[in-house]
Amino acid sequence: MIHKLAGKKAPIEILEDIEVLLKAYYTNKPNIQEQTQKVSFGTSGHRGSSLKTSFNENHILAITQALCEYRKNAGITGVMHIGIDTHALSTPAQISALQVFLANEVRCKIAQKSEYTPTPVISFTILESNKNSNFLNDGIVITPSHNPPGDGGFKYNTPNGGPADSDITSFIENRANEILLNNLLDVKRINKNEIFTSNFLEAYDFITPYVKALDSIIDMNSIKEANLKIGVDPLGGSGLEVYKKITEIYGIKLDIVNEKIDPTFSFMSCDHDGKIRMDCSSKYAMASLIKLSNKYDIAFANDPDFDRHGIVTKSVGLMNPNHYLSVVIWYLFSNRDWKNGLGIGKTLVSSSMIDKVVNSLEKKLYEVPVGFKWFVDGLFKGTLAFGGEESAGASFLRKNGSVWSTDKDGIILNLLAAEITSKLKKDPGEIYQEFEEKFGKSYYRRVDAPASFEQKTKLKNLSIEDITSKTLANEEIENIYTNASGNNASIGGLKVTTKNGWFAARPSGTEDIYKIYAESFINEEHLDLLIKEAQDLVSKSIKK
């Protein structure tokens, strides 16, 4: 059900009270007997709200101490690169983290001039720093991504530049909860007033080296020569200075339609549920840029930590992320001189249009569970040319086939849309329409359904034998998966496929819901039936 405020500018009465939020960060103390107040690392780190006592000073102190202990055990003795986004809780969380890192004599680099640093810039910097170093360097990004203004988040990127795998996050999570249970007695920390005089802290220009290297992955010259009208909305996020630096270094004219940094994100249009959410893949959150689509040859936006992309074209308006990823894969493999044998990574809940495009290119598809971490090793080693998620996150290799970033990079995905438009004289939306003519039209949707903790656990542990039905939406079931076909890793749920459709179901890591993703290549009615039967089938299985 779409909220009455969806797509409308956020009214003042729903704006976050930043003063109350920050006070709660320091005063609310978690009770880890409560499941929702424990440290919990999902696919994108630990997230929560200070008002719900799920993201507070004690959490960050404990997580950072646990991370220091992990680094010591793993022999990681180099620089910790620290990025933050523009959420209100990110700055105090950075202070808390620095208190602990510096007390543990971890060398840290933070952005100069109190600037913000996008996730992909941290990933890029880690990889660059490790090229000629005698020590392993890593990083953190303090961000809850596109989540509402009242949320905070903390994620760890290992020396390979990518988000930490579950064995690492499990150690940090478990150790942090032990530290909380022990009333922080194991936490080493310095006073706040000692932070900026510490010999272990350095202010660093993260942005300039990243921007200077962009022409190794994007044809920046073709964009400049095409003299496109390009609109950019940073959505109040951490990469505003990146786009300014692009104009400065490459002379590409970018019309930044909103330069405002405001922790309430008062300039946003409300999302589908009436909440403020900086989701650059949502037509409701992106309403203000969509209205300007006819003004530009191509326009784009990012979420607050800039790991996601949102592409707005004249032809179709805001592109569905699945549609754009299909175009990106086709374009890259048609216009990059990469070696043969490179894989193309997609999550199992991404559109099967990608499968059709990959098959037409006669390339190798690598399908994995949800989470960008599954692409890290392939991108790092140069065996995967591309890795992408249906939630508008992706990265790919440089023009020479070497690694660029091993975390999602919304900046290069946006710039690639400008390269495509400049080179082909048509925008990505027009190209996707050609795919529909060739491969058929995709009808795709994600819905949420309520589920208790016990039911989510059952869903996570379903086996193929639990599904007894032979048909789905009037078609014979062809395959049932509980492990991804690309790497045989557990889905944490299941995927069921037929000739012209599929659904996948998996529990949410943070909410009392499970998610159903479904796609039909027949019509909307078939998609509705797919979703209904999927819900019935899953509901029956988890209520046994």
Q: What is the CATH homologous superfamily assignment of the domain at 12-209?
A: Alpha-D-Glucose-1,6-Bisphosphate, subunit A, domain 3
List how many beta strands DSSP finds: 23
* Shape, per Cα inertia axes: globular
Which class of the domain at 12-209 in CATH terms? Alpha Beta
Do you know the CATH architecture of the domain at 12-209? 3-Layer(aba) Sandwich
The end-to-end distance, rounded to whole angstroms, is 29 Å
- Major sheet: arrangement of strands: 1-2-6-5-3-4-7
Rg from Cα: 23 Å
CATH fold description of the domain at 12-209: Alpha-D-Glucose-1,6-Bisphosphate, Chain A, domain 3
Q: Look at the structure and give the mean pLDDT.
A: 96
What features would you describe in this structure?
With 544 residues, the chain is α/β, with parallel strands linked by helices. The model has no long low-confidence stretch (mean pLDDT 96). A hairpin with a 2-residue loop joins strand 18 and strand 19 (475-476). The protein has helices at 18-27, 57-74, 90-103, 119-129, 166-181, 207-212, 220-226, 240-250, 287-290, 321-335, 352-361, 373-381, 410-424, 428-439, 453-460, 524-542, and strands spanning 41-42, 45-49, 80-84, 108-111, 138-142, 151-157, 201-204, 230-233, 254-256, 298-302, 309-313, 317-318, 343-347, 364-368, 384-389, 393-396, 443-450, 471-472, 475-476, 479-483, 490-497, 501-507, 513-520. Among the domains are: 12-209, Alpha-D-Glucose-1,6-Bisphosphate, subunit A, domain 3 (Alpha-D-Glucose-1,6-Bisphosphate, Chain A, domain 3, 3-Layer(aba) Sandwich), CATH 3.40.120; 443-542, Alpha-D-phosphohexomutase, C-terminal domain (TATA-Binding Protein). The protein is globular and about 65 Å long. It contains 16 helices and 23 strands.
